[in-house]
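Dear colleagues,

As part of the handover before I leave the project, I'm documenting each prediction I ran so the next person doesn't have to rerun anything. This entry is a single chain, and its sequence is reproduced below.
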Amino acid sequence: MRQLSLSAGLSALVLALLVLAACAPAAPPSPTAPPPKPAATTAPAPQPTQPPAAKPTEKPAPTAAAVQPTARPTEPPAAKPAFDEKAVADFYKGKTLRLIVGAGVGGGYDTYSRLIARHIIKYIPSNPTVVVENMGGGGSLLATNYLYNVAPKDGTVLASMQGTVIGQQLFGSPGVQFDVANLHFLGAPTSDNYLLMVAKKSGITKLDDVLGPNGKRIVLGGDAPGNALEDSAVVLRDVVGANVKLVSGYDGTAKIRLAMDNGEVDGMSGMSWESARISSRDQLESGEWLILVQFREQPHKDLPKVPLITTYTRTDEQRQLLRFSLIAPGQFARPYIVHASVPPDRVAALEAAFARTMADKEFLAEAEKTKLDITPLAGSEVRKLVAEYTGMSADLKAKLQKVLRPSGR
């Protein structure tokens, strides 16, 4: 009996332990085990105290660093300004910003500048008034000298210069009163692709017609040494061997276009496709004016059938002279500048405003409507191109100077 009681007691104890084990909470998962899945329903999230993030389809505000020169710009993520925004805003409050255009009214430089002026005010702190002033002369030499020597150096004056004027300093042309090392490049709306255009009534239909000593004479309008309108005509004559007569002194492309209509000249060399597609579109589409050649190493996407100037070269020296006299300068042909003495915060603000303008939807829509090409270069890209150009070898510089600036031309 005592054994039975002992057995019964043990059985009861085992049963009690089993009941306790069944009721105990589950052991926590091991550190290497996957976490348990969340419940199917959760409590609603609290309302945010900050503005909600932009939807995936919305484009955040642009910054200067993200502008690309070879593609349609997109608006990059917003970033903290690289300048004291309050100090810049305090300075520009109630101010008028002057944009000096180094070309006459009605040309491509003027058209770009007036469009930019309408939109850049949105991105300059305190939104100052912007006034466009034309100061043509000397292939923008007059405007560049004015910005460098006369204009206030406080950030209230910037200029649209023709980048080829840099060659005037490089080759020691008379009248240069600036140092490119003391100019700050804000950026450029596009590069230039230079052309040789003639009026159909001239009877010239291809470049071959005017090549060699027996070629037909072609009369081209120019403005001043150092500008593509004049230098390209000289290169055609002295490097390529075209029978060119150059008529200098015109104040920009608008005056030369009028001279073409009146029969004073046969055409012009060095006008860019970016300007021609705006100001001369009707004449080109009607066939009244013809494009004989493009000063490029590869065809422009809009001009696949127009011959390249490089097809008319016979030696490597000719190709190098063409590249550094016209093709390379065309890449930085439309820079916007301020004097390097402008306070750094204001320079940074203007450069950022220029870049944001290039990505502005309303600006791009208006540019598209008026057939303006917008493939912008950031300020840093323009500075790099200018440094490469001015850093050419001494031998090449001497050869170019002999062609473009003989006897101080």
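The radius of gyration is 33 Å. Residues 64-191+332-408 form a domain with the D-Maltodextrin-Binding Protein; domain 2 fold (CATH 3.40.190.150).

All the best with the project,
I.
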